[in-house]
Design a protein that fits this description.
With 355 residues, the chain is mainly alpha-helical. Helix content is 80%, strand content 0%. The protein folds into two domains: 137 residues, no CATH class; 208 residues, Methane Monooxygenase Hydroxylase, Chain G, domain 1, CATH 1.20.58.220.
């Protein structure tokens, strides 16, 4: 099991909160520790956003808890009603993410709030503030996130997975159970990539001046994700139609298989060019062999339409309709790859001009 940066930051924030409580002689320090644990965020922007929201929610919980206890007491029924009121106020103010901490503050304050012991109540309030601030400091100073590298690595891994699945699918080499497992893992990977991409946007745009190079990267990574979705669409289309069209012995099948290999290899080469493994080509257009093969596939496909329409067999016509979305997906995948290659080419060309 890997120990991630967030786990380390949580531990450091907890230690810092406990040390501050010990230095200021505030008890019980466990409240500050809980607040620090709940306040760790994945990006600096979310850290400062949550810092403001949690301070507001914490203050609301403390003030209402003190007032309610002073006038109504701290019986279980009163505590429950006050918690409900605090929840409604937080929801009204759109402080949903800070609800847990606000509730903890209410309970901690009401536990010790009496007419003669309000100082202890405010002591509990400051304990939660110490925890929140400890987490904010750790988020800002220790182990800043680098989502660009994580995003590219996950995009590369998913590209390899989808390319492998496409090739084994058209060759009918993978067991059905294994294919379903790989497909479910790919869906999970998409969710992870979307989350990291959102965090990457926050990291690049909220606290930094967005440069021309930085804006190009945002567009470039967006296209990387778009190409992955197109590849996933192609996988679904092939799975649905490839064996409902013409048989494996049909002369169009080797052409489709060959073009699929060429395009998936081209996809990998684009990513390696971006990462600096391969040199940037002089042009961003599709390679000539892929263009020629696309033209050949389209030509043969159109000839096949005439052939199918000239036969009385309805089965042949139905098979051709299954083959139509397969060819369309191949062309759209090629177009999206060309656009990605153009962005990579432009990005590297601009960088070399800056250097």
């Amino acid at each position: 099991m890997r120990v991630g940066a967030r786990i380390i930051k949580t531990g450091i924030a907890l230690i810092l909160a406990l040390l501050v409580c010990k230095w200021l002689k505030l008890n019980p320090p466990v409240i500050a520790a809980i607040a620090a644990t709940l306040s760790i965020q994945p990006t600096l922007y979310r850290t400062w956003k949550q810092l403001r929201e949690q301070l507001e929610a914490n203050a609301i919980g403390a003030v209402i808890g003190v007032i309610a206890t002073y006038f109504l007491g701290a019986q279980p029924l009163i505590v429950g009603l006050v918690v409900m009121i605090v929840i409604l106020i937080n929801l009204r103010l759109k402080l949903e993410d800070s609800l847990v901490l606000s509730i903890i503050t209410v309970i901690a304050v009401m536990e010790v709030s009496t007419g003669n012991n309000l100082q202890l109540a405010w002591n509990r309030f400051f304990l939660t503030v110490i925890g929140i601030l400890s987490a904010a400091i750790v988020n800002a100073v220790f182990i800043p996130p680098h989502y660009e590298k994580r995003l590219f690595n996950e995009v590369s891994e998913l590209t390899d997975k989808l390319s492998f699945m496409l090739r084994t699918l058209v060759h009918n080499e993978m067991e059905e159970k294994a294919f379903r497992k790989e497909k479910n893992e790919a869906k999970s990977a998409f969710k992870s990539i979307e989350q990291i991409y959102d965090l990457y946007i926050e990291e690049r745009t909220r606290f930094r001046k967005v440069t021309y190079s930085g804006s190009k990267k945002l567009v470039l990574f967006k296209q990387m994700v778009t190409v992955l979705y197109k590849e996933m669409d192609m996988l679904r289309t092939f799975e649905r139609h490839i064996y409902s069209s013409f048989t494996n012995e049909h002369y169009l099948f080797p052409m489709i298989k060959h073009q699929l290999v060429e395009l998936t290899d081209y996809h990998k080469n684009i990513l390696m060019t971006y990462s600096g493994v391969l040199k940037t080509k002089e042009t961003w257009q599709l390679p000539e062999p892929i263009i020629e093969e696309n033209d050949r596939v389209l030509h043969e496909f159109m000839l096949l339409y005439k052939e199918v329409k000239s036969t009385p067999e309805e089965q042949d016509d139905g098979q051709w309709k299954h083959l139509f979305p397969i060819v369309a997906e191949i062309f759209e995948y090629a177009n999206q790859l060309e656009h990605l290659n153009k962005l990579v080419h432009t990005f590297h060309t601009h960088q070399s001009e800056e250097d």
